[in-house]
Design a protein that fits this description.
It is built from 11 helices and no strands. It is an all-alpha fold and 301 residues long.
Length: 301
């Protein structure tokens, strides 16, 4: 959720800051105005259409980049082919001139009475064949290297395309989960997301939230610990752990994880007082202190 919110905020800032610059405001005034507007928001700034727009822009950018890479590699191949053609023409001309020279030398030898012309001819043919074979092998090696590079680039492009398709599928499942009102159905959707991307911490924590609504706090605890094994700084996982332990009446553990969540994301401080999952902690002295004053050093959590 925070990743999508950051993307939406970045898009909003891209629209607001240029408009403010046209009105003559300074960058610091723009930043202050943006912060004030963000603080005054009463509902999420993003929506599925903004997310879809950002995803389509990303897909178009990657497609354009892949086409540019393909065009560049095609130009390189064409230039290599031209180089090969020039080299072969050079080798052919060299051999031709070499034969002309041998013919002239042979004529001279005939005139002076040398009778070993056949030996000279055989030796010349042998040297010419060896040189041509060397040139052919060299350019075959170069062409093989170019072919290997093209194969690697094609594999990279295919991998990018598969990643884009996977991202689109996961984004579609997230939209379905947001529109689903049944916790059991949301759990099923999160399972599909985790099947496509097993290391998705966000899917694990939101699945834990839905499982907690189903009255399975121990299951939620296990899911949150799985998320923390992937990302130990995941504040949402700590918050869900606090809610799960509160549901199991493990108030001390709930307070410990609640402190860790607030220490990593100060915005939770305003939510914990209204969260129904934490009502059982309202009379706990440390909960009152947590709501009323900031957390101290990170070591306390």
């Amino acid at each position: 959720m925070f990743g999508r919110l950051s993307a939406a905020l970045a898009l909003w800032l891209c629209m607001v800051v240029p408009a403010a610059a046209e009105e003559g405001q300074s960058p610091s005034a723009d930043a202050a105005a943006a912060d004030a507007r963000i603080d005054s928001l009463q509902e999420p700034l993003y929506n599925p259409f903004v997310e879809r727009y950002v995803l389509d822009e990303l897909k178009a950018l990657r497609t354009e980049q892949a086409a540019m890479k393909h065009e560049m590699m095609q130009q390189i191949v064409d230039r290599e082919h031209k180089s090969v053609d020039r080299a072969v023409a050079y080798a052919t001309d060299t051999v031709t001139y070499f034969f002309y020279l041998i013919a002239a030398a042979t004529s001279v030898l005939v005139l002076v009475g040398w009778t070993s012309i056949r030996d000279i001819k055989d030796r010349v043919h042998t040297l010419a064949d060896e040189e041509i074979a060397r040139l052919v092998n060299e350019y075959e090696r170069r062409l093989a290297s170019i072919e290997q590079q093209l194969t690697q680039k094609s594999q990279h492009i295919d991998a990018n395309r598969e990643e884009i398709e996977l991202t689109q599928d996961i984004q579609s499942l997230w939209l379905r989960a947001q529109q689903e009102s049944s916790p059991a159905n949301r759990v099923s959707i999160y399972d599909q997301i985790l099947k496509l991307r097993p290391s998705d911490c966000e899917a694990l924590t939101y699945k834990a939230d839905s499982v907690l609504e189903l009255g399975e706090p121990q299951w939620a605890v296990n899911l949150c610990h799985q998320a923390l094994q992937i990302d130990v700084e995941n504040s949402h996982a700590y918050y869900q752990l606090a809610c799960a332990y509160a549901a199991m009446d493990h108030f001390d553990d709930a307070i410990v994880y609640l402190k860790k969540a607030v220490h990593r994301a100060e915005s939770y401080r305003e939510e914990i007082a209204q969260d129904p999952a934490l009502e059982s902690l309202h009379t706990h002295p440390e909960f009152v202190t947590l709501v009323g004053s900031p957390i101290g050093d990170a070591s306390e959590s």
